[in-house]
Specification:
Blueprint lengths: L26 H11 L9 H6 L5 H14 L2 E7 L5 E8 L3 H8 L13 H17 L8 H16 L5 H14 L1 H6 L16 H21 L5 H11 L1
Antiparallel strand pairs: 1-2
C-alpha cells in the first residue's frame, strides 16, 4: 500500500502530526480535530454546524468531541452575564497539547512589594550607628543591612502585632544599654530568629527588659530606716 500525495498550491492546510498519529485517539476524534484545524484562524466554532459536516450523526460526533475534551485539545470556557452567572460555553481548539497547556496556564501572581516606612529605615540605621560606635570592628553598615533590619521591624509590627512606641523602641534602647544584649544583637536581622529556648530573640529581649524593671522596682521600694528606727535597731542588736 502506498501513500499518493498531490502537488498542492492552494486549498490545503499545514497541521501538526500530533493528533493524527496519536494511537490513543479514535478515528472519529482525529477526524473532528483535523477538520477543525483546516478552518481559518479565528473561526467561531459552533457544535451544530460541526455536527452537520459529518455523516456519523450527533451521538458519534459527541463521543469524538468528548475524547478531545478529555485529552485537553478542546478547552471549555464559561460565557458569563454581567452579574457573573454562566450563560453558555465557549470552546478553544488547540493543535497540540503543549499549546493548550501554555494558553491555559494561570500566571503566577507577583508577590506584592512591601513598602517600608521611612521611620523604620531611620530606626534601623540609628541602631546600627549606635552598635558601630560600641563595636567598630564587628559592625559594618550597609544599605542592604539597614533595609533588612527595617523589614524585620516591619514584620514585628505587622505580623507579631508589637507596638513600635511601646515595645520596639524601648526594647532597642534596652539592648544598647545592657551589657549582655549589646554584644548579642549586632544586627536587627536576627530579631525574629528563635533562641535556644524556642522563643524569638525579640521576645527574650522583652523578657530580660521586664526582669530588669522588676529588679529596679524592688530597689526603689527599699526605704532607708529613719534615725529613730536606726537607733532602735542598733539598740536591739546591742
Amino acid at each position: 500500500m502506498s501513500v499518493i500525495r498531490s502537488c498542492k498550491k492552494s486549498q490545503f492546510s499545514s497541521i501538526s502530526n500530533e493528533v493524527p498519529q496519536n494511537p490513543e485517539l479514535s478515528a472519529k476524534a482525529k477526524g473532528i480535530h483535523t477538520y477543525m484545524m483546516t478552518l481559518p484562524d479565528g473561526w467561531v466554532l459552533r457544535k451544530p454546524y460541526l455536527i452537520e459536516q459529518f455523516r456519523d450523526g450527533k451521538e458519534s460526533f459527541e463521543a469524538g468531541w468528548s475524547e478531545l475534551v478529555d485529552f485537553g485539545y478542546i478547552v471549555r470556557k464559561p460565557k458569563r452575564k454581567v452579574d457573573g452567572t454562566v450563560r453558555g460555553w465557549d470552546f478553544d481548539v488547540y493543535e497540540t497539547l503543549a499549546e493548550a497547556k501554555d494558553a491555559t496556564k494561570k500566571p503566577r501572581k507577583k508577590k506584592a512589594e512591601t513598602v517600608i516606612p521611612q521611620n523604620l529605615l531611620d530606626l534601623s540605621k540609628s541602631f546600627m550607628e549606635e552598635q558601630k560606635e560600641n563595636f567598630p570592628n564587628l559592625v559594618k553598615i550597609t544599605d542592604t543591612k539597614i533595609t533588612k533590619g527595617a523589614e524585620i521591624l516591619s514584620m514585628l509590627i505587622r505580623v507579631d502585632k508589637h507596638s513600635l512606641e511601646d515595645d520596639i523602641i524601648p526594647a532597642l534602647d534596652f539592648v544598647i544599654s545592657d551589657d549582655f544584649w549589646c554584644r548579642n544583637l549586632l544586627s536587627l536581622a536576627s530579631l525574629r530568629k528563635k533562641g535556644s529556648n524556642g522563643e524569638l530573640k525579640f521576645i527574650n529581649i522583652l523578657t530580660a527588659q521586664e526582669r530588669g524593671r522588676g529588679r529596679q522596682k524592688e530597689q526603689d521600694t527599699t526605704v532607708a530606716p529613719t534615725e529613730t528606727e536606726h537607733k532602735r535597731i542598733v539598740g536591739a542588736e546591742i
